[in-house]
Amino acid sequence: MKIECYISENCASLNQLQESVEKALNEVGFDAETSYHRINDEQAKMLHMTGSPTILVKGLDIFPGGTPGLA
To answer: How many CA atoms lie within 13 A of 71 on its CB side?
Structure first.
């Protein structure tokens, strides 16, 4: 399974995001290729991201909706 996490370049919660994702994976026993990307608002709009963090599992946003750009 592939998980991609996108987070605002100004967001201070990257470490918390990493810990939460790893904890969730461990609890359910999944092995995943996980990557974390710092992005700016322009990149978020180009990628159609709707918040920070945005988490994609197998390419699908687990919290879809909203207006493209970082909140």
So the answer is: 10
* pTM across the whole model: 0.84
pLDDT digits (tens, 9 = 90+) for 33-64: 999 999 998 998 888 888 889 999 999 998 88
Domains of the chain, residue spans: 2-61
User: How many angstroms from the chain centroid is the CA of residue 67?
Assistant: 16
- Residue among 14, 20, 6, 15 at smallest CA distance from 51: 6
| Contact of 8 with 54, CB cutoff 8 Å | no
